């Protein structure tokens, strides 16, 4: 079975200045494999400075490994030329943290989407280009008629980030590097973006490397996880296994910092209702009233945090406390 991507003992060392002998090892001896026939979502998690962005830059070919090899569909990306290099640049796309940075304020969204179509000669005509843009926007849950023709300042952060995903999707990528794609998006919109990424994997066969410092969102969408600390892999494996029973002390520390519902907490006379929240079998207790009701809410447990001051908040929708309060008042007897 062929591999889509393989990292073989990849290390990246940054030199600190020309004269200084000090070197900064940003990534150490990292190996991973993504199979071509099994599109998946793999998380790379770690705190600030652990080497996540360095990994993204390496995968995108912006920087080269100091040692080791990055093999994309059987070829070392460092030595790709001609057609192979063009195919790699088209098939490996990225969505970055800042949904604002890639937009030029003087151009409409159409421009952002037209550039890759022209660069990679994707469309046969203007009408074909328009169809492709509309298709990509629809695939990420946006209505083309609401989006096309607008300037960046007329869009929300969540819309911009989904347009970034649509731009990547236009190129029919096989691999998407998503570097902290929800960390600058409002909590209330995180679920939308994560759901969009999951649809990309499920419906469009795109493998995703989801880079984050946030284990909760990692648990939310990924199948497997690699935990990085100071450039080295601390633990790797199935996301359920790693988060539910972390073996390495550093992973345990990261897991312990997740705001987990306190199951012993009581809401007045009533046990905390969020206890079973988000379980695949039971579903989220707020789901029927949630304006953002989506599959993601019903599949993973740690979405709810319950605070001692009787405010309960859904992690993903934490910026909508009033909705949550309303839902809670319905669910809990007075
Ligand atoms: N161009 C560079 N030159 C020298 N050192 C660098 C360079 N880029 C990153 N580093 C160092 O490499 C290490 C890893 O950095 P990297 O940006 O990959 O971490 P990160 O996990 O993405 O952090 P963050 O979450 O804060 O973005 C850090 O110690 C950083 O200071």
Automatic annotation (TrEMBL):
<dbReference type="Pfam" id="PF00005">
    <property type="entry name" value="ABC_tran"/>
</dbReference>
<dbReference type="InterPro" id="IPR013563">
    <property type="entry name" value="Oligopep_ABC_C"/>
</dbReference>
<dbReference type="InterPro" id="IPR027417">
    <property type="entry name" value="P-loop_NTPase"/>
</dbReference>
<feature type="domain" description="ABC transporter">
    <location>
        <begin position="5"/>
        <end position="255"/>
    </location>
</feature>
<dbReference type="GO" id="GO:0005524">
    <property type="term" value="F:ATP binding"/>
</dbReference>
<dbReference type="InterPro" id="IPR003439">
    <property type="entry name" value="ABC_transporter-like_ATP-bd"/>
</dbReference>
<dbReference type="InterPro" id="IPR003593">
    <property type="entry name" value="AAA+_ATPase"/>
</dbReference>
<comment type="similarity">
    <text>Belongs to the ABC transporter superfamily.</text>
</comment>
<keyword id="KW-0067">ATP-binding</keyword>
<dbReference type="Pfam" id="PF08352">
    <property type="entry name" value="oligo_HPY"/>
</dbReference>
<dbReference type="InterPro" id="IPR017871">
    <property type="entry name" value="ABC_transporter-like_CS"/>
</dbReference>
<keyword id="KW-0547">Nucleotide-binding</keyword>
<keyword id="KW-0813">Transport</keyword>
<protein>
    <submittedName>
        <fullName>ABC transporter ATP-binding protein</fullName>
    </submittedName>
</protein>
């Amino acid at each position: 079975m062929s591999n889509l991507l393989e990292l073989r003992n990849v290390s990246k060392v940054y030199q600190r200045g020309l004269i200084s002998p000090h070197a900064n090892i940003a990534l150490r001896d990292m190996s991973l494999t993504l199979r071509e026939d099994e599109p998946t979502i793999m998380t790379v998690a770690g705190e600030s400075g652990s080497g996540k962005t360095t990994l993204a830059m390496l995968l995108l070919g912006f920087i080269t490994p100091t040692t080791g090899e990055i093999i994309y569909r059987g070829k070392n990306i460092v030595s790709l030329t001609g057609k192979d290099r063009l195919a790699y640049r088209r098939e490996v796309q990225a969505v970055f943290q800042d949904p604002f940075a890639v937009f030029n304020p003087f151009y409409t969204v159409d421009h952002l989407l037209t550039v890759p179509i022209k660069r990679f000669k994707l469309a046969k005509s203007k009408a074909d280009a328009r169809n492709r843009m509309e298709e990509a926007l629809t695939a990420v849950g946006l209505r083309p008629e609401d989006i096309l023709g607008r300037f960046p300042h007329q869009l929300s952060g969540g819309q911009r980030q989904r347009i970034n995903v649509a731009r990547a999707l236009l190129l029919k990528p096989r691999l998407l590097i998503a570097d902290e794609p929800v960390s600058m998006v409002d909590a209330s919109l995180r679920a939308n973006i994560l759901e969009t990424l999951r649809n990309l994997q499920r419906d469009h066969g795109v493998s995703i490397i989801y880079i984050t410092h946030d284990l909760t969102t990692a648990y939310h969408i990924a199948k497997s996880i690699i935990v990085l600390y100071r450039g080295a892999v601390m633990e790797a494996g199935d996301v359920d296994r790693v988060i539910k029973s972390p073996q390495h002390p550093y992973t345990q520390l990261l897991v312990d910092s997740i705001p987990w519902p306190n199951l012993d907490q009581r809401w007045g006379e009533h046990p905390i209702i969020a206890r079973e929240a988000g379980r695949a079998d039971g579903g989220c207790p707020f789901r029927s009233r949630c304006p953002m009701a989506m599959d993601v809410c019903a599949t993973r447990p740690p979405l709810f945090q319950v605070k001692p001051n009787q405010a309960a908040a859904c992690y993903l929708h934490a910026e909508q406390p009033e909705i949550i309060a309303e839902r809670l008042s319905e669910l809990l007897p007075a």
